[in-house]
Amino acid sequence: MKLITAVVKPFKLDDVREALSDIGVSGVTVTEVKGFGRQKGHTELYRGAEYVVDFLPKAKVEVAVADSLLDEAVEAIVKVANTGKIGDGKIFVTNLEQVVRIRTGETGEEAL
Amino acid sequence: MNRLLSVSVLLALALFSGFCSAEDVAAAAAAAPPVINKGDTAWVIMATVLVILMVIPGLALFYGGMVRSKNMLSILMQTFVIFALTSILWALYGYSIAFTEGNAFFGGLSKAFLMGITPDSQAATFSKGVYIPEYIYVAFQLTFSAITPALIIGAFAERVKFSAILLFVVIWFTFSYLPIAHMVWYWAGPDAYTDAAAGEKAAATAGLIFQKGALDFAGGTVVHINAGIAGLVGALMIGKRIGYKKEFIAPHSVTFSMVGASLLWVGWFGFNVGSNLEANGLAALVFVNTLLATAAATLSWMAAEWLIRGKPSMLGGASGAIAGLVAITPACGWAGPMGSIFLGLLVGGVCFWSVTSLKNMLGYDDSLDAFGVHGIGGIIGALGTAIVANPDLGGTGVYDYVANAVAPYDTGTQLISQLWGVGISIVWSATVAFVGYKIVDMTIGLRVSEVDERQGLDLAEHGETAYHS
């Protein structure tokens, strides 16, 4: 099993959810996050006081998938979250040791 | 026959009663008993409510939106409580010191505790023989005395103890607001000016700045210069916020600031038009002037920001509106509509410069630009009044209550009168503020601790938070 952590532009969140549902992913966790990458921040001006905003808002999508679904899921996210402009985000993939469904006590891929 | 008799009796009665009322009218004209007009009274009641709307929630939201979210409640609370506190002080002694006869600086204590005022008591307006109930005049003026100290807190927002602010407000209200209001506004009323000799006698009882001939229709000097200067002295003495120019100290909600500025704009019609004290043609002129100057200043601030900084901001638009309202306040009863637009265009640009360049040049941290907008805007308005009041430039000129006509107007002479008003109020307010801050600093201390300032005044001073996420 793998855990996919995708950091994407907030307005792409709905597209990502839809694409993942379409390939059979049954659940995701979403967090509003801030961060920086190659995309520079922006400047805000309030009555002449200038502030550089370094951290930009992004959406973090966490999704656990079976190994067999990994490539398809990553491809789906890349396809819909891509705008071609700087700041589209990143996808991190890590090994997932265990999953437990709390209601039934099922474990492993059955719990996904 | 019977019928004829009854008709003639009726006719006689009618004639008699007609004769009687004619006699009454003649007697009334001779004594000129004061008339209370229900329209005037209703308007001043409404205007008073509108000025309350300016303070709570207008000013509170305008200021509150500009601080960081951790200090939102401190601003709301300071504004709210200053309103309550000064209301009580006004009734106890404020009204009496400001609006009864005394010397050129302070009134007397004859109406302390609102003594002697009844529902039948009358307050003079600006027309001979026209009065409004004194109680509503007391309440109307109360709202002015309440908003003025609340304006000052913008200069040192986000770093001063709540208790320190309350003590300072009591001192400054008593020794700066009340005497300046007395100096600018106290006079014997139009009915005292029956002839030249009586006029001279009446003028000698007026406040010092009134005697100098300075014009201040709705409080440009009393409210805005007065508060702006006290704010500047505060910002200089209290020092900058921790992290000023290093950390992200941006407004937490420009939305609230826009709502607040809009409430101020609406409420200001009570402030300016209500200051006319009568619902008449001049009131309508004041209304138009207030509307146009504010619109013009919104546009000129926006244009200046757009040209110089590249983008027109909402906070800039709202700030421009407030600057326009401030500048037209002293002039609104004497300017014409085109003069008001001129004054608005001027003040929008100048106040933009004062908050973006002047503040940086002088290096003080006037958190919400109490001085930059109210102080500078008030001075522009007070001096500009001398120009826009000129009848040759569409102004109304100044009414001479002895001649019962508009007096000959000279801009230069009037400008000197205005300078007296500006100069006296700057020196007076700065001195009282300096001493006031010193007293507070020596007794309870002005600033919160560094830990409290970092945590935010909402939790540190009030034990609550504005937002829960």
Task: Give a concise summary.
Chain A has 112 residues and is of the alpha+beta class. Helices cover 20% and strands 37% of the residues of chain A.
Helix content of chain B: 55-70%
Overall form of chain B: globular
The percent range for helix content of chain A is: 10-25%
Structural class of chain A, please? Answer: alpha+beta
Mean pLDDT of chain B: 93
Plain-language structure description:
- The complex is a heterodimer of chains A (112) and B (469).
- Chain A has 112 residues and is an alpha+beta fold.
- Helices cover 20% and strands 37% of the residues of chain A.
- Chain A contains 2 helices and 6 strands; from the N terminus they run βαββββαβ.
- Chain A has helices at 13-22, 70-81, and strands at residues 2-8, 29-35, 42-46, 49-53, 56-65, 89-95.
- By secondary structure, chain B is an all-alpha fold.
- Chain B has 16 helices and 5 strands.
- A 3-stranded mixed beta sheet of chain B has the order 1-3-2. Chain B has a two-stranded antiparallel sheet with strand order 4-5.
- Chain B is globular and about 65 Å long.
- Chain A binds chain B through residues 44-49, 51, 53, and chain B through 66, 245, 248-251, 309, 311, 313, 315-316, 319, 355-357, 359-360, 369.
